[in-house]
Design a protein that fits this description.
Blueprint lengths: L10 E2 H8 L2 E3 L5 E2 L1 E2 L9 E4 L7 H6 L4 E5 L11 E5 L2 H13 L8 E2 L4 E2 L4 E2 L4 E2 L4 E2 L4 E2 L4 E2 L4 E2 L4 E2 L4 E2 L4 E2 L4 E2 L4 E2 L4 E4 L4 E3 L5 E3 L5 E4 L4 E2 L4 E3 L5 E4 L4 E2 L4 E2 L4 E2 L4 E2 L4 E2 L4 E2 L4 E2 L4 E2 L4 E2 L3 E3 L4 E2 L7 E3 L8 H14 L2
Length: 337
């Protein structure tokens, strides 16, 4: 099969091996321009395998030109295949994907003529502001950052360096976003928290939310996620936090560094979540409780009280056939009599 040449672009196996700290066997000048699964990869593609025993057949049949493999597997290269041996293949795959994904977020510097930039704001000369975007008074956009089409960067908002706002991100007044963050379309940062005082027969009296939101560096926030401003202080998202789509973070919540939160999680006001936690999809966390560092909360779990020890926590009933569930429910009802 033909190999890629320098005219095809991409990277050499040697460049990638040096960047990943891996041991290379085979042609170190073999080039790759894409990243694909073993089954569909071709001679100009990079691929990877984390479990050689489980995927031995796919590995043998793959036409990939460069493959990331576990160092412990002891695999050998061939005339048509270069191998990069790594201690942690999945981490290597993640870093290689960043190389190949860079063009997706590359933008030429400048402000689109269809954008509105308040004269009292500050946009770095090498930043990009897309069509229909609004930059409010006193806002700052840092070097090499991208503000996508129809984003709103409100008054006094601070956006750090090399941060990417996909189209239709809304940052309301006083929000601070760190360096190297990625915010996906539709997320709203700094909306009012859900604060109301009961007023008897008159209903509810609004409590103005006078705080703000502080987001650390290297944070990624998924599409249509909402993070509310604090009532009197800041809602805080720590460094390196990863938040999936459709997550709600209420006012005054604090999330520690490098915690990961899957989709459809709801976190009620004033909850404090530690560092290096993992929260499964659809989990609910009640307000005014604390969770220590290094806690894993399984999907659909309802956390009703503070967690004071690291570990795995779960609740809920896994699915089963409807007839079995109905039988179990009938027995539970009889126990309650």
């Amino acid at each position: 099969m033909p190999q890629c040449s320098e005219t095809d672009g991409g990277y050499s196996a040697r460049e990638l091996a040096e960047a990943l700290g891996g041991q290379l066997t085979g042609d170190d000048q073999r080039r790759f321009t894409g990243l694909r699964p073993l089954a569909t990869a071709g001679p100009c593609d990079l691929s990877f395998v984390t479990d050689v025993g489980r995927h031995a057949e796919a590995l043998a049949a793959s036409a990939a030109g460069v493959i990331l493999v576990p160092e412990a597997a002891g695999l050998k290269s061939t005339a048509s295949r270069t191998l990069i041996h790594l201690d942690d293949v999945y981490l290597g795959y993640a870093r290689a994907s960043q190389w190949l994904g860079r063009p997706r977020r590359a933008r030429a510097a400048g402000v689109h003529p269809g954008a509105f930039v308040d004269p009292e704001s500050s946009v770095a000369p090498d930043a990009f502001v897309g069509p229909g975007a609004v930059i409010g008074a006193g806002a700052t956009v840092g070097p090499q950052s991208v503000v996508g089409a129809h984003c709103v960067v409100g008054e006094g908002v601070m956006v750090g360096a090399d941060t990417f706002l996909h189209p239709r991100v809304t940052l309301l007044e006083g929000v601070a976003v760190g360096d190297r963050c990625i915010l996906h379309s539709g997320c709203v940062i700094g909306a009012d928290g859900f604060g109301f005082a009961p007023a008897g027969e008159q209903g509810w009296e609004k409590i103005e939310q006078l705080g703000h939101v502080v987001i650390g560096s290297d944070v990624e926030i998924g599409a249509n996620t909402t993070i509310d401003r604090g009532a009197l202080r800041a809602t805080r998202i720590g460094r390196g936090v990863k938040i999936d789509n459709l997550v709600h973070v209420a006012h005054n919540v604090e999330i520690g560094d490098h915690t990961a939160i899957a989709g459809c999680v709801g976190i009620a006001g004033s909850a404090r979540i530690g560092a290096h936690c993992a929260i499964g999809g659809g989990a609910g966390i009640l307000g005014h409780l604390s969770i220590v560092d290094h806690v894993t909360i399984h999907a659909m779990t309802l956390v009703t009280r503070s967690i004071t020890r690291p570990g795995h926590y779960a609740s809920g009933v896994p699915h089963q056939e409807a007839r079995l569930w109905n039988r179990m429910l009938a027995r539970l009802r009889r126990l309650a009599r």
